[in-house]
Amino acid sequence: MSDKQRKILVTGGAGFVGSHLCGNLLKKNHKVICMDNYYTGSEKNISQFLNNENFEFIEHNIIEPFDLKVDQIYNLACPASPPHYQKDPIYTLKTSIWGVLNVLEVARRNGAKMLQASTSEVYGDPNISPQLESYRGNVNTMGPRACYDEGKRVAETLCYEYNKRFDVPVKVVRIFNTYGPQMDPEDGRVVSNFIIQALRNQPITVYGDGQQTRAFCYVSDLVEGFIRFMETGPEIIGPINLGNPSEMTVKQLAELVIKITNSSSSVEYLSLPVDDPLQRCPDISLAKKILSWNPEVSLLDGLRETIAFFATQLSSK
Ligand code: UDP
Predict the structure, then answer these.
(1) What is the distance in A from the centroid of ligand 1 to the CA of 314?
(2) E strand or H helix that includes residue 35
(3) Which residue's CA is the nearest one to ligand 1's atom 16?
(4) Residues contacting residue 34 through CB under 8 Å, at least 6 positions apart
(5) Per the database record, which ranges form the NAD-dependent epimerase/dehydratase domain (predicted)?
(6) Which one of 27, 232, 259, 296 has the largest count of C-beta atoms within 10 Å of its C-beta?
(7) What are the residue boundaries of the structural domains of the chain, listed by start?
(8) Ligand 1 test: best mutation among 189, 204, 219, 249, most atoms within 8 Å of CB?
(9) Which architecture, in CATH terms, is 7-180+217-245+279-296?
């Protein structure tokens, strides 16, 4: 990567992934404008950057038009965990459609590159595994996940069309399950829920029989993939999967978290949410080839870091 200082907008920069991205870009000495409306993001995620002269925060909802002169945009603004994106499905759709249009307009007007945070949810409940980028998905337009899945699918299409019509250099990354410090304890995600429950010695809530699979990527690996993708030439638009292909069942994750935390928690089986994908695992051959990217943090190391983060959070309460 070149050392040239760039002016970079991170929408959703006060969120879990966004704040890690801001930190990484600041370390590389870029000027970072973090935009967030704190719908799911939080001020405490960015408090450590507020005294950095290269960091600026703008409180704004991307659903409303805006303009900024920047070189690059990472568009991460969108509620991403099922309980959050299902709270107000129309708002989630507006964020993925109106919001992405507004961000693409900023990129078009200012000649900026734009990386769109898409998702493995575009594959829906996949009937092939692992999922390759060429797989077109098995998505329900009507279910509780539709506002997110279909919104993100439209968002991708908007990116490809802005690239075709206006030559906006877009980069579409499909993010698979990601975890790490600064996850919101209220997010309702499997990793955060299990760790908090285990640390409190409360029952671990496994939905369904726990045989559904996921593959968990540590946040620093994901962010490294974003930056590598952003630095590619304009001909590379994606989509590119980013995730850790070590697939496991939710039940195995529960057992592992209990073991590492030395918890006395038992496992409690609750009903499986509607349309919960039964399997999910990225095929990352494309990311390996184009970005020379490979996740480096093992699940054990990543979980240890994440557990330490939540332990501090719980003890400071
Ligand atoms: N899950 C679970 N218990 C929880 C939270 C989630 O068993 O307390 C399951 C959920 O049903 C799904 C998987 O864990 O099968 C991953 O859920 P998460 O919400 O983290 O992400 P998703 O991949 O579904 O977007």
Answers:
(1) 22
(2) strand 31-36
(3) 190
(4) 10, 13, 14, 18, 22, 46, 49, 55, 56, 57, 58
(5) 8-233
(6) 232
(7) 7-180+217-245+279-296
(8) 189
(9) 3-Layer(aba) Sandwich (3.40)
